[in-house]
Amino acid sequence: MTSCESTATYTAKDFKSEVKPVWCPGCGDYAVLSSITKAFADLGLAPHQTSVVSGIGCSSRIPAYTNTYGIHSIHGRALAVGQGLKLGRPDLTVLVAGGDGDGFSIGGNHFLHACRRNVDITYIVMDNRVYGMTKGQPSPTTESDWDASAMAPPGGTGMTPFHPLAIALASGANFIARGFSGDPNGTAQIIAEAIKHPGFSFVAIMSPCITFREEQRDWKNTMRNVNIEPTTDPAQAARRLMTDDGFNCGILYRGDRPAYGKEKKATNAVSDLDREFTL
Ligand code: SF4
Ligand code: MG
């Protein structure tokens, strides 16, 4: 046993810090914090074996509230920081967490390339379809006609919302799931599965902003668990996701692509090519 290993058993509470969250009372992110800490404990991890990395936004405050290693990094750049951390410290469980504005707008390009690079990290996006911290601007996942905030254009943006799960699949993500903050135990199970799955795992968690999107309180009536077998077939996953209404929760896709650094590298590519042309 090395000095870093431990035989102690930790509970979800051990993964929570002493810092009291400043989220609005009723924000969905409280439950997501509980799901993350429960997943770490259920997996038998220790705080010193885990790390939470975030960008900027309401949900990106989460490293302060966890008793793990953590980096509250730069707006939209959490995935770059998280991948670098994992490559430098492959022994750590690295969980990157943030919101829909941080992850899909400012960090959109990092999202695409993290999916295809397939470093063995877990990415959680607490999606409330709004920029909460900056007081209610539409985000990439906001419905095109939403204009209930003083910060939204009259009649809405008119833009087609970003479909993060379909885009993750098209970009090569190895594990794709959706959770709901109103189901913290189910979401903890999904996060634990995502952490265990090799490669880049993406979990979108619908997490209501009760301050700027009060109508999202109704999500508890529209979210549904889909007790389907997660498919390993990207074509089947694509069909499922393209007909998805945004309310199906569960593990929707499990790929079998080896994680970055674990691929079988072609060692003799030139002679293989040569053989192909001479046969
Ligand atoms: Fe949560 Fe919205 Fe309040 Fe931010 S503004 S803490 S997302 S309820
Ligand atoms: Mg948001």
Q: How many domains, in number, for the residues?
A: 1
Bound molecules: iron/sulfur cluster, magnesium ion
Number of helices: 10
Strand order of the largest sheet: 2-1-3-4-6-5-8-7
- Taken in chain order, the helices and strands follow as HEHEHEHHEHEHEHEHEH
Q: Indicate the structural class.
A: alpha/beta
CATH topology: Rossmann fold
CATH architecture: 3-Layer(aba) Sandwich
* Mean of all residue-level pLDDT scores: 92
- Overall geometric form: globular
Sheet with most strands: 8 strands, mixed
- Reading off the top of the CATH hierarchy, the class is best stated as Alpha Beta
Please indicate the percent range of residues in DSSP E strands (runs of 2 or more): 15-25%
In the predicted model, the low-confidence regions spanning at least 5 consecutive residues are 271-279
- Please give the alpha-carbon distance between the first and last residues: 53 Å
What does this molecule look like?
- InterPro entries: 2-oxoacid:Fd_oxidoreductase, THDP-binding, TPP_enzyme_TPP-bd.
- One of its GO terms (molecular function) is thiamine pyrophosphate binding.
- This is 2-oxoglutarate oxidoreductase beta subunit.
- Residues 56-204 form the Thiamine pyrophosphate enzyme TPP-binding domain.
- Keywords: Oxidoreductase.
- The chain is an alpha/beta fold and 279 residues long.
- The protein has one domain (24-278): Thiamin diphosphate (ThDP)-binding fold, Pyr/PP domains (Rossmann fold, 3-Layer(aba) Sandwich).
- Helix content is 32%, strand content 15%.
- It has helices at 29-42, 62-65, 78-88, 100-106, 108-117, 164-171, 184-196, 219-222, 234-242, 269-278; strands at 50-54, 69-72, 93-99, 122-127, 175-180, 201-206, 224-225, 248-254.
- It has an 8-stranded mixed beta sheet with strand order 2-1-3-4-6-5-8-7, with helices on both faces.
- Strand 1 (50-54), helix 2 (62-65) and strand 2 (69-72) form a beta-alpha-beta unit.
- Helix 5 crosses helix 6 (164-171) and helix 6 (164-171) packs antiparallel against helix 9.
- The longest helix has 14 residues, at 29-42.
- The radius of gyration is 19 Å and the shape is globular.
- The chain starts with 28 loop residues before the first helix and ends with a helix.
- The model is unreliable at 271-279 (pLDDT under 50).
- The chain binds iron/sulfur cluster and magnesium ion.
- Magnesium ion (MG) binds at residues 99-101, 128, 130-132, 139.
- The site of magnesium ion has 8 residues, from helix 4.
